[in-house]
Structure formats: structure tokens, C-alpha cells
Automatic annotation (TrEMBL):
Name listed for the protein in its UniProt record: inosine/xanthosine triphosphatase
Phylogenetic placement of the source organism: Bacteria, Bacillati, Bacillota, Bacilli, Bacillales
Keywords: Hydrolase, Magnesium, Manganese, Metal-binding, Nucleotide metabolism, Nucleotide-binding
Gene3D superfamilies linked to this entry: 3.90.950.10
Domain Non-canonical purine NTP phosphatase/PRRC1: 6-154
InterPro entries linked to this entry: ITPase-like_fam (IPR029001), NTPase/PRRC1 (IPR026533), YjjX_NTPase (IPR050299)
Catalytic activity: XTP + H2O = XDP + phosphate + H(+); ITP + H2O = IDP + phosphate + H(+)
Organism: Terribacillus halophilus
């Protein structure tokens, strides 16, 4: 059972490995998300995760594909970080979102004007590795949460949905 992750970003690869590593053989591949480099809504971010998962599931040797995507989404009170994941196994697909966090305006404004969150965060923190480690969520929670932990949470939702399906497939068909 081989699960291919649609990214080489260590924050994503480590999250998948922590959650799925006990039962799946893992590999990673750079695939196209098919959305913009900076997704600007929940819908676009979810679509990026889905397209990464589907692309991975079709690669040679794959039993399943998983996609994780980061983005931002505008709400009543400002711009939030959002994260989505998708798991594709055969013709089945599950998706789930992660926690959201309001970005301060001095970060949100350049992103609204077209800059990517990653470079903005690198400039603000003077840290080149910020997107692959704590991420913006780590910075703005003073280290209480990390980008990898947010992706781990999404992976648990995906693994759990797949487990529920596998355990209840027959019941679902009869219901
Ligand atoms: O190699 P991939 O998998 O693409 O890794 P990535 O870090 O670019 O991850 P995403 O494409 O899912 O990220 C989507 C957006 O999230 C942004 N992002 C980058 N660093 C971030 C950080 O520290 N915290 C949150 N989002 C970040 C990044 O600018 C992208 O525009
Ligand atoms: Mg990217």
C-alpha cells in the first residue's frame, strides 16, 4: 500500500509521515496543484489539495494520493490563513480543512496586493525556512502551533474518514 504525497515541503511530508507512516509506504512527488501559487479562498485552496491528491493517485505504483494545500481566505474581519487536505484512494476522494487564523493587516495587505504569503513571512521573520517549519501560524501563535501540526490535524481527519469508509463500506451500501 503506497501513499504518494504531492509535495516535497518538509512541513507537509513530516505531517503525512507522522499520521500515515504506521500503515502506508510513503513517497513524495512534486505535482501541479492546478491553482494559483497563492490560493485566495477556501474553495481554491481545497481544489489545490484535491488536484494534488488526484495527480499523485495516478502516478505509477500508487495505491493512494494525498494533497495538502495552504492558502488564505477573506472573512468579515480580515484575511485568514486556511489549509486543506485531500486523500484519493481508487475512485474515492475525501477532503478536510484545518484550523484558521487571522493574519495581522501588515501581513494581509501585501498578500491582498498579490504577494505570496511565503516571501512576506520570510521578509518579516528574516528566516528562509519559515514556510517549511513553524510557518505563519507558528509565528503568530508564538510557537504554540506549527504549520506541520496543522497539516497533521488535517491528515488525521483524512485517515479517519478513510478508516470509517473502510469499516462501513458494506453497511453504507445497504443503508
Ligand atoms: O512545495 P509546496 O507543497 O507547494 O509548499 P508551499 O509551502 O508552497 O505550500 P503551498 O503551495 O500549499 O502554500 C500555499 C501558499 O501558502 C503560503 N505559505 C508559505 N509560507 C507559509 C507559511 O509560513 N505559513 C502559511 N502559509 C505559507 C505560500 O506562500 C503559498 O502561497
Ligand atoms: Mg506552493
Amino acid at each position: 500500500m503506497k501513499l504518494i504525497i504531492g509535495s516535497k515541503n518538509p512541513a507537509k511530508v513530516n505531517a503525512v509521515s507522522t499520521v500515515f507512516g504506521d500503515t502506508w509506504t510513503l513517497a513524495s512527488a512534486v505535482v501541479d496543484s492546478g491553482v494559483s501559487a497563492q490560493p485566495m479562498s477556501d474553495e481554491e485552496t481545497r481544489l489545490g489539495a484535491v488536484q494534488r491528491a488526484l495527480a499523485c493517485s495516478k502516478l505509477a505504483g500508487a495505491t493512494a494520493g494525498i494533497g495538502l494545500e495552504g492558502g488564505v481566505t477573506e472573512m468579515d474581519d480580515g484575511l485568514y490563513i486556511c489549509n486543506w487536505g485531500a486523500l484519493a484512494v481508487g475512485d474515492k476522494l475525501w477532503s478536510a480543512s484545518g484550523a484558521k487564523l487571522l493574519l495581522p493587516d501588515f501581513i494581509a495587505d501585501p498578500v491582498r496586493k498579490g504577494e505570496e504569503l511565503g516571501p512576506v513571512m520570510r521578509a518579516f521573520t528574516s528566516r528562509q525556512d519559515i514556510s517549511t517549519t513553524e510557518g505563519a501560524v507558528g509565528v503568530f501563535t508564538d510557537g504554540h502551533m506549527s504549520r506541520a501540526a496543522m497539516f497533521e490535524h488535517i491528515c488525521l481527519l483524512l485517515k479517519g474518514q478513510y478508516a470509517f469508509y473502510a469499516a462501513n463500506e458494506k453497511k453504507e451500501a445497504e443503508w
